[in-house]
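Molecular record:
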Amino acid sequence: MKKLLFLLAGSLLTAQQTSELLANNWYISKMVTSSGQTTNTPAIDNGVPATTFNSAGGTSYVINSRYYNTSMMSFGVIPGGNNLIKTASSCTLLFYNGTNAGPVRAYDQKNCDAYVLGAYGSIYSYQITTNGNVKTLMITDPSGNKIYYNNSAQLSTKETETATKTFKAYPNPVKEVLHLENIERKLPLKIYDLSGKVIFETTTNDTKISIDTNSLQKGQYILVLENYKSYPFTKE
């Protein structure tokens, strides 16, 4: 009876530990190496897809870490801690040939390596922090590299997923002014950083507009114009 009660208590504790992992869609936002080098998630065609956690029964779970390819890892959870024990892994082998191809491919490989290279039985750890409505998940692999995710779905809205119209934008990368042409008037326009935060918004007043990007820090952004496909760009 004592053993049964212990097992039940362990299962309940594990369920509490993983409830936030399972309840959220997560979006990969950056990677930090054990030496401290940070790489923000490069902008990608169609936006960053959601990373999910799923129960595989008992104390077994699966993470599908999605960028262009999907890095999958099965793991077990030890009750009472935030350690994940790797039991299996794999990664899809699609070849990205869209916008920003070089940085996307390199980052995609890092996403695969983070979960595939660790040996069977390797220990990963995770931590979830909350800032307002935004939750940040940090997973540390056996080498000490850290993968960050947030729960913002703003980079993968139904509005941008289903849109088919496109507009002309240049230059990309942009140093000062981003020009948009062939757009409609009176549409909301927003620019997001890769954490899902809106850092610029306006309403179009003509069929062509120019956006001063001098206030933006160097990095990757996604421009979302209602009824149009999202547009990833780089600020230099």
User: Anything to note?
Assistant: Confidence is low (pLDDT under 50) at residues 1-13, 154-162. Residues 2-23 form the longest helix (22 residues). Helices lie at 2-23, 101-116, 158-162. The chain is about 20% helix and 40% strand.
